[in-house]
Specification:
This protein is an alpha+beta fold. Helices cover 41% and strands 22% of the residues. The chain has a five-stranded mixed sheet with strand order 1-2-5-4-3. Strands 6-7 form a two-stranded antiparallel sheet. The longest helix is centred in the C-terminal third of the chain and has 18 residues. The protein starts with a helix and ends with a helix.
Length: 147
């Protein structure tokens, strides 16, 4: 997976959601990299959070744009070519405080969850060792940013 393909898809998603008034927030590894201002590691997917009441509209827009949809517990997965998109919903799961309200960043026009939210998320213990390894790498990057 090339970072350029994922970033291109993110740009198209930003345009699509913006045209339809859908708020979203980038989270996960790409959010760490947006805060860092550089790509710090390879990414498997894009992680976006949307308000639950926009979920059906998001599904309709994405499928109309050619994304293939696979619902999963707590979030939905979409794929377009080689890009995987995971959409989480704000009222599903436990989000760290200030993830989406007062302490967010906007980088290159993309709303990104807060550094404090990312730090709390990346500090969680994961059962999947590959996910845990990515979280450890992201935590190192976040440690540099939070100094």
């Amino acid at each position: 997976m090339k970072a350029a393909d994922q970033l291109s898809a993110l740009s198209l998603l930003d345009e699509l959601f913006g045209q339809h008034g859908i708020e979203y927030w980038l989270f996960g590894g790409w959010a760490v990299d947006f805060h860092a201002g550089k790509v710090t590691r390879p990414h498997d997917d894009l992680d976006l959070a949307v308000r639950s009441h926009d979920g059906e509209r998001v599904r309709e827009l994405l499928t109309a744009a050619g994304w293939r949809h696979t619902p999963e517990e707590g979030y939905s997965v979409y794929e377009l070519d080689e890009v995987r998109l995971e959409v989480a919903f704000l009222d599903h799961g436990e989000w760290p405080p200030n993830s989406f309200e007062h302490d967010v960043a906007e980088v290159a026009g993309v709303r990104v969850v807060s550094l404090s939210s990312l730090k709390a998320d990346k500090a969680m213990v994961r059962d999947d060792e590959s996910v845990a390894a990515k979280d450890r790498a992201d935590s190192v990057t976040l440690g540099r940013l939070l100094g």
